[in-house]
Specification:
Blueprint: H1 3-6, H2 24-43, E1 47-48, E2 54-56, H3 57-60, E3 76-78, E4 84-87, H4 92-101, E5 110-119, E6 131-140, H5 146-161, E7 169-175, H6 176-185, H7 194-204, H8 207-219, E8 222-224, E9 230-232, H9 238-248, H10 257-263, H11 268-286, E10 294-296, E11 310-321, E12 327-338, H12 344-347, E13 353-359, H13 360-369, E14 382-384, H14 391-406, E15 411-413, H15 421-431, E16 435-438, H16 441-446, E17 448-453, H17 454-463, H18 467-472, E18 477-481, H19 485-503
Parallel strand pairs: 1-5, 7-10, 14-15, 14-16
Antiparallel strand pairs: 2-4, 3-4, 5-6, 6-13, 7-11, 8-9, 11-12, 12-13, 16-17, 17-18
Helix pairs in contact: 2-5, 5-11, 6-11, 7-8
Length: 504
């Protein structure tokens, strides 16, 4: 074996498919957005709670059963006690476990919110990730649909708190009992039809994505996507498909009431669902939320199996350009509904619950498209240059940095290896730093510091070529006593902020 073969191969840095690294700008944008959402949830009387990333797999429920793993669609592993653990698929199932486990200590109705990452072991694609953040609010222990109506009103208020104007969003509301009634009316009632009903629900849930014809294929024999992958359909006949497409195609709930009643004739569950929808409609109208904000819409399904009553979707109405350069309506940024059976699985007694989940990453993209997020740029830190590296000099530089930080100013002492002053200024420039603080031996002996306005200096160097004009312009570098460092830096930062404001 030659010497080259003996060398250890360099590890290739690579990001797993369906996952992304987050930039400082994205992290700050999410923080800004979450703060606004949290303020609305708090105003409605909800309190925070946090659950772990992992749950026992059986606690999550069998969303997508698979013969090889307890749950298809989730990332799972076997613990050292031979029990299956899974990364949470959403934030709702973990909340149900939390409520059941702490039922005697929790005050019902339990009103809570939480934000966190969830994980889907699904095929990634454009805008479709395996890890993403959700922000949920739930009410556990309230049986009346007034709790569902409140969820819808809170979501409408959240959209507006984020700067989304009326007309650019709508909260769409349906009821799974109505859909159950439709499925029963076409012969899909009963336990033996559970899997077929779930396939139908998932097909309808793709209406926004694939349109009526795509859903027709998924309700029938199946659909092949652009990559050639085939999704098996529900296997319904043309009459069954026609009735489902009629139901989800209703655009005016009041105008279609008679036809809907005829379709649901003889199904008690369907009639109960219609009554609940009418109650929600009356409640939100009484509170001043018209149909341009909260709308009854039978096309809303929500694909998860655990929903038992009202379901809702927050949809953005404005158009954006997709990855193919096409103008499309942005669509759903969150949804939820009533899930009265989820906590009950652990309790052996009825525990009503309803909730809403916002897709944080998707909503952040929408807000950026509207120019409602990330407009406020974070000022880069002031850089204190390191001219001398003896203990006394380094101590002074560190004191300057701490004085600035204690005054609420972002600051850092140059920590690189390069001693060349020019390289340190290049570093500050690449960081976008507004100011460099400089103190060499002469300045130290005089008890002063040089403050270099990097933003003004950059502007002047590009705009002013005449030396006289340079001297007459706003000075880009000044010398001040050490004790005036903080005040002068604060003044220059304020001048820079005013310049940005005027430019904007």
């Amino acid at each position: 074996m030659n010497e080259k073969q003996k060398k250890t191969q360099k590890l290739r840095a690579r990001l797993p498919r369906g996952f992304v690294d987050r930039s400082a700008a994205d992290i700050r944008a999410v923080d800004e957005m979450i703060a606004k959402i949290r303020e609305v949830y708090e105003r409605y009387g909800f309190d925070p709670v946090e659950t772990p990333l992992f749950e026992y797999t059986d606690a999550l429920g069998k969303f997508l059963p698979d013969s090889d793993r307890p749950n298809e669609g989730v990332f799972s592993l076997i613990d050292d006690d031979d029990q299956w653990l899974s990364l949470r698929y959403d934030l709702t199932a973990p909340l149900a476990r939390h409520v059941a486990e702490n039922f005697n200590e929790i005050q019902l109705p339990y009103r809570t919110y939480r934000a966190g990452y969830v994980f889907r072991n699904e095929k990634p694609g454009p805008g479709r990730f395996r890890q993403f953040m959700q922000f949920d609010a739930d009410t556990v222990g309230a049986a009346g649909v007034q709790a569902d109506a409140e969820m819808c009103m809170m979501m409408a208020d959240t959209m507006e708190a984020l700067g989304i104007a009326r007309g650019d969003y709508v909260i769409r509301v349906n009821n799974r009992k109505v859909l159950d009634g439709v499925l029963e009316a076409i012969g899909l009632g009963g336990v033996e039809q559970t899997n077929t009903r779930l396939t139908v629900l998932r097909a309808i849930d793709k209406l926004d994505k694939f349109g009526p014809e795509g859903v027709r294929l998924l309700l029938g024999e199946g659909r092949k996507d652009e990559s050639g992958d085939f999704t098996k359909g529900a296997g319904l006949n043309e009459e069954q498909i026609g009735k489902i497409l009629f139901f989800v195609g209703i655009t005016d709930y009041a105008r279609s009431a008679d036809e809907l009643a005829a379709l649901l004739a003889g199904t008690a569950r369907g009639a109960e669902g219609v009554n609940e929808l009418n109650t929600i409609r009356g409640l939100v109208l009484s509170a001043g939320y018209e149909a341009d904000r909260i709308k009854i819409d039978p096309s809303v399904v929500r694909g998860l199996e655990y929903y038992t009553g009202p379901v809702f979707e927050a949809e953005l109405q404005f158009a954006v350009t997709n990855e193919k350069g096409e103008k499309v309506v942005f669509g759903s940024v969150g949804g939820g509904g009533r899930y009265d059976g989820l906590v009950s699985r652990f309790m052996g007694q009825p525990v009503p619950a309803t909730g809403f989940s916002i897709g944080v990453s998707r909503l952040m993209t929408a807000l950026k498209n509207l120019g409602k997020l990330g407009a406020e740029q974070v000022t880069a830190p002031v850089v204190v240059c390191v001219m001398d590296r003896d203990i006394e000099s380094m101590g002074r530089y560190q004191r300057f940095v701490q004085d600035l930080r204690h005054a609420g100013i972002r600051a850092e002492m140059y920590q690189g290896n390069k001693k060349n002053f020019g390289d340190q200024l290049k570093y500050a420039d690449r960081r976008g730093s507004p100011i460099a603080v400089i103190q060499g031996g002469d300045e130290r002996a005089s008890g002063v510091v040089q403050i270099k306005d990097l933003i003004e200096g950059k502007r002047l160097s590009g705009e002013i070529e005449d030396n006289v004009a340079w001297r007459e312009a706003r000075v880009a570098q000044v010398s001040v006593p050490e004790g005036e460092l903080v005040a002068k830096v604060r003044q220059i930062l304020a001048e820079q902020a005013e310049d940005r404001k005027r430019a904007g």
